[in-house]
Amino acid sequence: MLNVVGPVLLLVLTGYLLGRYRPVEVSSLAPVSMYLFAPALIFQSLTRSPLTSGTAPRLLAACVVHLVAMVLLGLAVSAVLGLRGARRAAFVLPTFHYNAGNYGLPVSLFAFGQPGFQAATLVFVVNATLGNFTAGVTAAWGSRGGLRRAVADMLRLPLVYAVVLALGVVATGWNVPEWLDRTVAILASGAIPLLVVTLGIQLAQGGGVHASGELVAAAALRLVASPLLAAGFASLLGLEGVGRQVFVLVAAMPAAVNTFLFASEFDCDPRFVASAVFTTTLASFATVSVILSLLL
Length: 296
What we know:
- Helix content is 81%, strand content 0%.
- It has 13 helices and no strands.
- The chain has helices at residues 2-21, 26-48, 56-80, 85-96, 104-144, 147-154, 158-172, 178-189, 191-205, 213-236, 241-251, 257-265, 270-295.
- It is globular, with a radius of gyration of 18 Å.
């Protein structure tokens, strides 16, 4: 757990210190991630990840149902809290879009070996495709208003086409030329560091993490309600074995750093989203450890 969470927290701290002592424009860094590094990371991740086969249909169904349920739950809680517009979208984003990639994959591998990694890969694919698209639409909807316009805005981003191209490569079995593969790999290798450091800079410029009832509610939905719902849907859909364990475990991951990227791109209260990403990542050291002890 320390090997997974530690580097993320240190990079956030690095960005925080940089943001405190040097003038850095987050509005300039976020588009670089959105239009270059993040699409490369998504393309590389989807084209290089093996997919599991045995439990794939039920696991896929569980992931989709869980995503929809978390979005609806986030919207319901935001209504109770009286949130509207960009604030509502900022609250919902970190409740349903979680770090299934650079957090969920290694933890699943450490806990359940190669079968766990393969199952987690399928969860990641759903999160990287449907999850990213839903997150983008949610942020655009909160900032711009109108679902149709939000979808149109999301379709202008290269992330969508990176997913389409990657799935096309996987479906056709096309071998990406080495020169292109290396170019994508170089860009992809910079995506996570830039995103996490930018997150730290945002926290510094926003005055750090501002504790509030909304933040606690968002963290509780992400770290507690999400795995509980996952366990329920796994039972309902007859998902068993390693597939069930991995699904529940990955559903307990902290908010995805990409939520901050979408919030920044669409000016959807990025300060709150940055606080939610940092808080859930820090708290997950305890909550994921507890869930692991229950699953193993």
